């Protein structure tokens, strides 16, 4: 069958374009919108938690509502805000950095987004149907079992996360294949940008970690919906089994979140120091080693579960070992800045602020890795402070840095620098106000997951400071939203290489990138490919192919309907309405059948149409 030319393909516009797109750049923007929305929801939940705790014996929310807020804040921030915002950066940047025209499986990329989105929506529907999940974001049994949790809250958690997890798993596989198979000629593995390396290792972690979570969620679903006995001790089940399954996923998940942030920081610090990244090959091996060791430390979350001294000692040692490759990264960032011509743009402020903040999170991590000490810290606010230093002080600062850095490439407009710096200082100061003091609260004995506390315990002033800090972080987020609106209305247009010191391939093409990314696939002649060409006196990359027709994948509405089918099936099975569940699965399988029978060859963009788009031939 002959390929249709682009002008004979019906181009969708407006809302339909966004609902049917398989273009990785648009899917990146969809991830950013959805992740940003859930970030605001999770942030609102956090602020409500802090309002409840700002004074002793407060009754702002009830104990039950507090448990729901606590559970949904953790679940939303990790699975529905942090992950999709990372996927937004992955989609926006990775194909451009490796010189590819799209990801390996554009249809699957779209399916991954829609399943994540509808899984997240399903989870949040629980607020309006008589009770959100309330067993903590880790949903430990027996608290999450039907014996102790009789309403539908935990069912929403179990089924919503399974649907959202499908999207994440699909995305991880897609980016692994993309990075392995679709690099531009000359881009060997040891010439890949550091961000691409971080995403490569992250995608491998997703591939191996998420099935463990899926198995655990399916087992808990069978316990709750069909009275199975995986975790029912009375009938031969085992509650500690859930802890193992959850943390075999949950610890690599920390690195799934933080490694992309490491990649962002490497790119930003290198660009704004006008220097090649110090110790590139050691950074690569450190990234791989962190990914490898990330699977060997899960039981440090379970030191108090009674695994015994041998297990505790082994997991203590493994946990401390992970500090070594992380330390390598910290020193390499410092040496990259050393002697560099540093520009403190808002992107770089977030990157530089990340380094000491993440070190503080890492140091408390090593403290928690000492099993005897962990008995004291466990389930206190010290642990809350530790993981917020890693996840917010690491990951969220990294995401802010990446968004300020790649915004011009994603949207073609420069974010306002003054508002960017305002965002940084309010968020950064608010963050340290909120969480630094929680270390001391924990050491003084304040347990986590309590909805109120008595007067006279010495917690009052510290909790008040912590709450004020949370409001400052909220203010910082509002400044960022104002910045987005101001930029959209009257932002300065961005050139191909708006920072003037771009080192990697994404800065060689127009901002925002055209539909086909590269008019001609570039030829990569070294690490920091674009910088090398600049040093050799070239203003553009050497092409690896003549100008010719470019093949593009067709848009499709099927991923959206497949995700809706899963959403309906989840709701139906949860309420034991099997005909509704069956109808949802029927929609899913019908879409799969249509996809398999459809003769979809995509379309060509012809060279003359590249000129139409204002590209010099």
Report on the structure:
This protein is 65% helix and 2% strand. It is mainly α and 617 residues long. The protein has a single domain, classed as Cytochrome C Oxidase, Chain A (Up-down Bundle). The strands form two sheets. It has a three-stranded mixed β-sheet. Strands 2-3 form a two-stranded antiparallel sheet. Helix 4 packs antiparallel against helix 5, helix 7 packs across helix 13 and helix 11 runs antiparallel to helix 13. The chain is globular. The N terminus and C terminus are likely disordered.
The helix count comes to 19
Category from helices, strands and their pairing: mainly alpha
Strand content: under 5%
What is the number of beta strands? 5
CATH superfamily: Cytochrome c oxidase-like, subunit I domain
Q: Gyration radius, to the nearest Å? A: 24 Å
Q: How would you concisely characterize the structure shown here?
A:
By secondary structure, this protein is an all-alpha fold.
Task: Give the secondary structure arrangement, pairings included.
Blueprint lengths: L3 E2 L8 H7 L3 H30 L9 H35 L8 H20 L27 H29 L12 H33 L12 H34 L7 H14 L15 H13 L1 H15 L8 H24 L1 H7 L3 H31 L1 E2 L2 H27 L16 H31 L1 E2 L35 H7 L14 E3 L5 H17 L3 H20 L5 E3 L1 H6 L5
Parallel strand pairs: 1-5
Antiparallel strand pairs: 2-3, 4-5
Helix pairs in contact: 2-3, 2-4, 2-15, 3-4, 3-5, 3-7, 3-13, 4-5, 4-17, 5-6, 5-17, 6-7, 6-8, 7-10, 7-11, 7-13, 8-10, 11-13, 11-14, 13-14, 14-15, 17-18
